[in-house]
Amino acid sequence: MTTPVEIKLHQRSKVLELKFDDGFECNLTCEYLRVHSPSAEVQGHGPGQEILQVGKEQINITELEPMGNYAIKIHFDDGHNTGLYTWENLYELGKEYDQKWPAYLKKLNDAGHKRVE
Description:
- There is one protein chain.
- By secondary structure, the chain is an alpha+beta fold.
- It contains 4 helices and 6 strands.
- It has helices at about 30-35, 40-45, 85-95, 95-110, and strands at about 5-10, 15-20, 25-30, 60-65, 70-75, 85.
- β5 and β6 form a beta hairpin.
- The chain is globular, with a radius of gyration of 14 Å.
């Protein structure tokens, strides 16, 4: 399992920069992390129960809270702070960004929501 060797929060640009021990690096926006939260509030309680997150374009992270040696709890400025982002989850979010982000945008569009930059 890979683990981050560096985690940097850039609040001005609303980006979480991650560098992993296998050399993989990614920059994940706060919005991307918020709409893909591993919490039940976002994921639901089972397959097919995901809840589309809307209006998160301006979201920012207020705090990163280490959880042992395996995860962080991310505190967002909309009050959301449930769901632990494990190293495996963060790595997957980075590796699968090119699939997950367009899929999220399509879901928003299909539901009739327009993003406001």
